[in-house]
Specification:
By secondary structure, this protein is α/β, with parallel strands linked by helices. The chain has two helices and eight strands, in the order αββββββββα. Strand 5 and strand 6 form a beta hairpin.
Length: about 160
C-alpha cells in the first residue's frame, strides 16, 4: 500500500510540473501604452478616438478616452507602434516610432489643437426624374429663348432632324 502512495505522490508531482511548465511556455509577454489627451489649455479631452497601430504587423487597437481624457491600450505585442488621436473640431495628432517592450508601460500624453471647422451642407428635396423607367428615353426641356440662341445650323434643317 505504501508503494501506491509514493507512486501516486510522484505522479501528482510530475503532473503539476508539466502543467506549470506548459503554462509558462504559453505565456506571451505583452506591453501597454497609456496616456492622457488634453487641449492646449490642459483641459482633458473625453471621447477622443485613439488608434494604436503596430507598424510591424499592421494590427490596430482602437479605444476612446475617458471623462478624464485618459486611455489605455493593454496587451500589445512588443514592437514599433504609432498612435493617432482624433476629435471632432481638432487637428489629428500622431506619434510614431514608439517602441513597446514586454512587461513595460509606455506613457504617451498628447495635446490637441483646435482645427479648421468644416461646414456640412445637406441638400434635401425631391428630384424630378428625366429618365423614364419604361424606356431609355432622356427628356430635356428648353425654353424658347434657348432655342433661338442656338447658332444657325449648316446642313439639314431642324425640322428634318425630327
Amino acid at each position: 500500500m505504501r508503494f501506491k502512495s509514493r507512486r501516486h505522490s510522484l505522479m501528482s508531482g510530475v503532473f503539476v510540473f508539466f502543467c506549470m511548465s506548459a503554462g509558462a511556455l504559453a505565456q506571451v509577454e505583452r506591453g501597454t501604452i497609456s496616456g492622457t489627451i488634453s487641449d492646449t489649455s490642459g483641459a482633458p479631452m473625453p471621447g477622443t478616438v485613439i488608434t494604436v497601430g503596430n507598424l510591424a504587423t499592421v494590427v490596430e487597437f482602437r479605444t476612446v478616452t475617458s471623462e478624464q481624457g485618459q486611455f489605455i491600450a493593454p496587451n500589445l505585442i512588443p514592437g514599433p507602434y504609432r498612435i493617432v488621436s482624433s476629435q471632432k473640431g481638432f487637428k489629428s495628432v500622431s506619434r510614431e516610432d514608439l517602441i513597446v517592450r514586454a512587461n513595460e508601460r509606455l506613457t504617451v500624453d498628447l495635446s490637441l489643437q483646435v482645427g479648421e471647422m468644416t461646414e456640412k451642407v445637406e441638400v434635401t428635396g425631391e428630384l424630378t426624374a428625366l429618365l423614364t423607367k419604361e424606356s431609355s428615353t432622356v427628356t430635356t426641356f428648353l425654353e424658347t429663348q434657348q432655342v433661338t440662341d442656338f447658332p444657325p445650323l449648316t446642313g439639314p434643317s431642324l425640322i428634318s432632324l425630327r
